[in-house]
Specification:
It contains 10 helices and no strands. With about 200 residues, it is an all-alpha fold. Helix 1 crosses helix 4 and helix 5 runs antiparallel to helix 10.
């Protein structure tokens, strides 16, 4: 989505503030100074502080998903067999469990938690997630059409489930642990491979 440069600058600053300090640190006055804009300009684009925060939270979630799409695209490049598809899946999952991804998962969970009791934010997240699921399903559909993954698999349902699995790792990481967690990783890989490829 194309945004006005001022709108994008304000949004970027707000995303950074939330990432570094949380929603409570978002202050219109601080954003005015950082972005060299007036409060009326901010309200013109976002309506209110809450509107700005909602858009920033939705954008944080969208950015994390967009990064995943780029990684998935790179992983799926030049696959020419079922075995290569299976190996690509393992690489994709291994990437998810890298220690530096711990912070990304925590940020996503924080964003989702912020939607509790906020219907407008929940609706924005729903839209972002549905769009992401649709894009991810379309990215792996060619593998299904070639017969490399189960033909009867509902790709949207699978991708919703996989998001839940990825988020579930946060429970292992809450105390600051970043892994590795070999038993969890192996169990997850085995479950995902079974769903996509069936029994070996």
């Amino acid at each position: 989505m194309e945004r006005h440069p001022t709108e994008q600058k304000v949004l970027d600053a707000t995303v950074r503030i939330i990432d570094e300090h949380g929603e409570a640190a978002v202050r219109i006055h601080d954003i005015q100074i950082e972005c060299d804009v007036t409060a009326p300009s901010i309200y013109h684009f976002f309506g209110s502080r809450e509107g700005l925060v909602i858009e920033a939270q939705a954008d944080r979630l969208r950015r994390s998903f967009d990064a995943n799409d780029a990684i998935l695209d790179a992983t799926l490049t030049d696959i020419s067999s079922r075995d290569e598809a299976r190996a690509a899946l393992r690489r994709f999952l291994d990437m998810f469990w890298e220690p530096e991804r711990t912070r990304v998962r925590a940020q996503r969970m924080s964003a989702l938690g912020a939607a509790v009791g906020r219907p407008e934010l929940a609706a924005r997240f729903d839209l972002v997630i549905r769009q992401y699921i649709s894009r991810r399903s379309e990215r792996i559909r060619p593998l299904q059409e070639k017969g490399w993954i189960n033909a009867d698999l509902d790709l949207d349902a699978f991708n919703y489930w996989l998001i839940g699995v990825v988020f579930g790792r946060v429970y292992l990481e809450l105390g600051g642990e970043t892994g590795p967690f070999p038993p969890w990783d192996a169990m997850t890989a085995k479950a995902v491979e079974y769903i996509l490829f069936g029994p070996e």
